[in-house]
Amino acid sequence: MKHTHLLTIALLGLSVCGLPLQQAQADDTATTTLSPRKEKKKKKKPTSADDKEASVQTDAADQDTSSEENAEEERPTVASALKQVKFLTSTKPSLKAKYYVFLHSASWCGPCRAIMPDIVKEYKKMKRKKVELILACGDSSEESAENYIKSYKMKFPAAMPGALVKVPGYKNAAYYPNAIIVDQYGQVVQEGHGKILLEWNSIITEANNKAAAEN
Fold this sequence. Notes:
The protein is α/β, with parallel strands linked by helices. The chain is 50% helix and 13% strand. Strands 3-2-1-4-5 form a five-stranded mixed β-sheet, with helices on one face. Helix 5 links the parallel strand 2 and strand 3.
């Protein structure tokens, strides 16, 4: 009988001791189950270095293009300068020409007079190719220059050399006859003896081909 009571007490002790253990396990399980999960923050993808570099290069290219366009617009032209020139003739130069020719010639110059009839003939052809010829007459007076113009029936505009000094590409001649062929910005295409004007067409064609190749 004594042994039976001892066994009963031992079993009750195990049962009593087991309840806290099971409850602790249940509580621990509940805590694990109910504990909210921490959401991972989405990381922003950093901007690609290549994209940044491409953007910088594009902006730089745009700025360069804009600068070039502004420089082109501000660059002085032959046409704009010719508006301020006092001409001896009623004929005024074309402001839409692609090339301009300054011909230094005078009535006292034998070689000048010799080639003038051929130059007068060539002028009509020049106009059709957007080439403008301007006579820089080296006569001592405007009256003498006007007589020279009339005697050879020159149809192109004429001025005294001093009136042309501010035109881009123009310069006083070291000898007569002298011809200077320039583009619309005054860049010299060719300069030489006045007789080069008899070959103006091939000179202009070569200049156009060179410009096309550079572009």
